[in-house]
Amino acid sequence: MSDTRRRVKVYTLNEDRQWDDRGTGHVSSTFVERLKGISLLVRAESDGSLLLESKISPNTAYQKQQDTLIVWSEADNYDLALSFQEKAGCDEIWEKICQVQGKDPALDITQDPIDESEEERFEEIPETSHLVELPSCELSRLEEIADLVTSVLSSPIRREKLALALMSEGYIKKLLGLFRVCEDLDNREGLHHLYEIVRGVLFLNKAALFEVMFSDDCIMDVVGCLEYDPALVQPKRHREFLTKTAKFKEVIPITDSELRQKIHQTYRVQYIQDIILPTPSVFEENFLSTLTSFIFFNKVEIVSMLQEDEKFLTEVFAQLTDESTEDSKRRELVNFVKEFCAFSQTLQPQNRDAFFKTLANLGILPALEIVMGMDDLQVRAAATDIFSYLVEFSPSMVREFVMQEPQQTDDDVLLINVVIKQMICDSDPELGGAVQLMGLLRTLIDPENMLASTNKTEKTEFLSFFYKYCMHVLTAPLLANTAHDKISKDLQEGSAKINPVCPDNFQTAQLLALILELLTFCVEHHTYHIKTYIMNKDLLRRVLVLMNSKHTFLALCALRFMRRIIGLKDEYYNRYIIKGNLFEPVINALLDNGTRYNLLNSAIIELFEFIKVEDVKSLIAHIVDNFYKALESIEYVQTFKGLKGRYEQEKDRQSQRLNRYRRDARSLDEDEELLFNDDDDDDEGEAVEKSRMEDDFADSYGKYMEAKKGAANGANGANNNGKAAVIPPASQAVTPNNSSASSVKTVALPATPVVKTAMVGLVDYPDDEDEEEEEEEEEEEQSPRKRPRLSS
């Protein structure tokens, strides 16, 4: 069996500076006699042929990248890379390389860039001390410069030396001066070389170089160089876009020139990374890591500078909430705050906490309450994004704000109700905004993120608030779309199961599905509050109307809601379901679905399977008593037969308990009789016992026969005959005996066959029939309490 940890792809760098895949195999490190040292061997997984045999040289610079990549150079123009399937395998080989070279495996490069091996002193690149000697910055030598910059990219050591040379001689500005000359002369060949040079300098990944290249007087020339990609027929017009199309908007004038410059720089560098530079290959991703860091720290600095300017932010929120602010201006303000919050995601956790607390103190939540209720779709969308940042940062902060509102405002303008209404009124056919808002509501009402230690009452207080002020707004569309269920059922009695109340509109169906998803979450996490709400509103009945929807996903949502309720195994819910006969719409949906083996079919069967496996006795009895005739024909699963079996087992257990009670009661009466008749002989006592058991059999058999629907008259006759043979008409115990017998018959009816079969072998004494009848009459007169106790 192959070891996936050692599975690698072998790459070599070709003359066009592109990586070629040489094959996939398994790597090992072993001593090779021919090479006189520990070597890396890669054998092809297809045929076992040798893909790579490379001695680990003590002076070779190996570099580990991205946890699964090892890159090194073996000759001037022969660079190699191993790409591992698993990090563990890469770490294992890296440790072996470091062991051979005597280096610390924690490092990502095995050779110090400042240290130079003897081999490097004879490389093609001329050196003066530790720097690379750069060609003079002239038009005629641009090709030579481009070749030099391109050739060092594969070697970390050479990249380091070139970067030092570029910084020490002010070379970058000289190159950009040549760019302006080439552009004036329309020297396309020179411009193509400059593209390669500037791109290569960016890939040197040095912050000090970026500071020079992205300064105000250089950055547009850098962008200009990157317009002339040799692969393009016509150059791109990036500078035109940055200077004319992209407009910098100051919603509130920024007086700090340093802050304004930083914003401009960040936007342009982000544009270079995202738009101009091609997507880096797997081997080039680390080349631009410093560029990413440069943008990151710029954003942090911008947020910090804005946050410290209290006058600026105060003015932003003042204009945002001012009724006289024009709609276009308010749109710009909301977009600014959104961008501001997005930048804050780059902050460290403690700084991000301070940032959002600053926004909260400035009144971000009251401002959102206003702008989220506006008609402008762009404003509402941006406000939703801001709200999501706040909820993600601190749900408790949002909950604390909304719980203070009822004292000051009407229900309709509560922040959570504004959010719910925006979710309900989402005009997007795919309900993209509604889905986002539903997720935010779910976070707010999730007890898991409610503080337990510092504020133990948050959960109780907020949920009470939510169910009092907000739940009716959330369920309004659901109740409105299922309002006439009873009328439609009455009109359609005996007709096809099509409910005109169910929404045919796909968008409405999607909205109801979202609401049901949230209600299902409530059932799982809000035990008391949601239970009270469901009972008071008869919510489950209204939800199950949607089982008739032509949209299967909506029917499944309704079914999932019921499944969560039953999954709680709460008898309070079970009694509610039984009393309302709420299985009927589910079973109708199953029967209407016919023989289709689809998701709806499987989900309904799983519901009944759960009830069977968990042995929910009250629901099993209700289902079998009311629906088994409709379900017994379904035989492709054993679920419903299993429910019937569970039902019969429970009836048998009840019958056996009742039977035990009857035998115990009679045994006690027999002992009392023996105290009063201790002079009777053994034969007489045996006759009394036989008579008692014969009477039990006759009584039980009579009741069993009464239960037979096909032979009701015959059963009644047999029962009357049996009673006539045992009970004298003039006995004072006749009336209570008859009433108690009928009472027992009703309770023990389903289990009487068991009683019958148990008694037959004990009382079948036909020869003693007369003696038993006489003894039974005497026993009845002596112990009138026996029969009445059966009904107690």
Features:
792 residues, alpha+beta, two-stranded antiparallel ribbon, 61% helix, extended
Please explain how this structure is put together.
The protein is α+β, with helices and mostly antiparallel strands and 792 residues long. Helices cover 61% and strands 7% of the residues. Strands 4-3-2-1-7-6-5 form a 7-stranded antiparallel beta sheet, with helices on one face. Strands 8-9 form a two-stranded antiparallel ribbon. Strand 5 and strand 6 form a beta hairpin. The radius of gyration is 43 Å and the shape is extended.
Short account of what is shown:
This is Serine/threonine-protein phosphatase 4 regulatory subunit 3. The chain has 792 residues and is α+β, with helices and mostly antiparallel strands.
Fold blueprint:
Blueprint: E1 7-13, E2 19-32, E3 37-44, E4 50-55, E5 63-65, E6 69-75, E7 78-84, H1 87-101, E8 127-128, E9 131-132, H2 142-151, H3 156-168, H4 171-185, H5 188-203, H6 207-213, H7 219-225, H8 238-245, H9 257-276, H10 289-308, H11 310-321, H12 327-344, H13 349-362, H14 364-371, H15 377-393, H16 395-403, H17 415-424, H18 432-444, H19 458-469, H20 471-480, H21 485-491, H22 506-525, H23 527-537, H24 539-544, H25 552-567, H26 571-579, H27 584-593, H28 599-613, H29 617-631, H30 639-676, H31 682-707, H32 712-726, H33 734-748, H34 752-763, H35 769-782
Antiparallel strand pairs: 1-2, 1-7, 2-3, 3-4, 5-6, 6-7, 8-9
Helix pairs in contact: 2-5, 4-5, 9-10, 11-12, 12-15, 15-16, 15-18, 16-19, 17-18, 18-22, 20-22, 22-25, 25-28, 27-28, 28-30, 29-30, 31-32, 31-34, 31-35
